[in-house]
Amino acid sequence: MFQHLTSIVAIDRHGAIGCKNRLPWSIKSDMAFFRKSTMGKSIIMGRKTYESIGGCLKGRHNLVLSHNSRVFESSETCRLVNSVKEALAAATQQGGAETFVIGGATTYSEFAPYVDRYLATIVDHSAADADAFLDEHVVSEFNRWQAHEIARFPAVSGQDEFAFKIVEFSAPDAHERVEMRKALANRFLEKHLNQVHAKGRSKATKDKSAQAAYSF
User: Fold this and answer.
1) Domain boundaries, the chain
2) What is the pLDDT of residues 120-129, one digit of tens each?
3) What 3-state DSSP class applies to 37?
C-alpha cells in the first residue's frame, strides 16, 4: 500500500484553480516543481484534466477517472478507472511510496476524504475570470492541518507571472485516512476477484453442458 495520497494543486488567493479548463496563470517554476514531484509516481486525474493536458503524462502511471469507458484504450501506463475505489485499488497494485491526485475540481473533491497530504501552490493573484475552484471545505481544512512552507518565489518576467509559495499540508488524522483507503481498495479487489471467479465457474459449467450435449 502506498504511504501517501497527495493532492497537488495550485490555487489563487480565493481558491481558484482554473479557467476554461486551463490554468489562470503561467508559472514555469511551479510546473517544474509539479514535474519533479510526480515523475515516476502514480497520478490520478479526471477526464476533463486528461483532455486539457492532451492525454496521459509521460514518466508516470496515469489513472484517469471517468464513467465513460470509451475515453481511450487502457495501456500499462495509462489506465481508465471508473470509480474512486478502483483508482485506489489500481494505485495500490502499482505500489510506490506516493500517489498524486492532480485534478480537476471534482476529482479533488471526490478524493478529499482519503487524501492525507496536500502540496499547495498558493499564487499571489486573484483570477477574476476563474470558473473552477478547490472546494471551500478543503480550503478551510488547511487551517487545522499541519503546514510547512517548502519554498517561496517572486514574480519573474518571462518565467513566473505572479509571486507564489508552495506549502505542504499534512492531515492530523493521516493514519485513519490510510486505513479508509486500504478498506476501499481491498473491497474493490475482493469484489473484482469474486467476479472473475464467478465468470470462470460460469464458463466451466457451459463447457460441461456443451460436452454433455455432444457425448451421445
Assistant:
1) 4-213
2) 999 999 999 9
3) helix
Residue 3 cell numbers, joined:
504511504
Using an 8 Å Cβ cutoff, are 62 and 56 in contact? yes
Residues 42, 159, 149: CA angle, nearest 5 degrees: 55
At a CB cut-off of 8 Å and minimum separation 6, what does 17 contact? 9, 10, 11, 23, 103, 104, 105, 108, 130, 132, 133, 134
Strand partners, 16: 133
Are 125 and 13 in contact, with CB atoms under 8 Å apart?
yes
**What's the CA gap between 117 and 84, in Å, rounded?**
17
Apex 39 CA angle, 37 and 43, nearest 5? 85
Tell me the C-alpha distance between 108 and 7, whole Å: 7
Name the average pLDDT for the chain. Answer: 90
Percent of the chain at pLDDT > 90 equals 78
The C-alpha angle 153, 156, 159, rounded to 5 degrees, equals 100
pLDDT tens digits, residue range 55-103? Answer: 999 999 999 999 877 778 889 899 999 999 999 999 998 888 899 999 9
The rounded distance, in Å, linking the Cα atoms of 38 and 212 is 56
- Residue tagged 519573474 (cell numbers): 156
Alpha-helical regions (H) of 14-123: 28-38, 47-52, 84-94, 105-111
As assigned by CATH, the class of the 4-213 domain is alpha beta
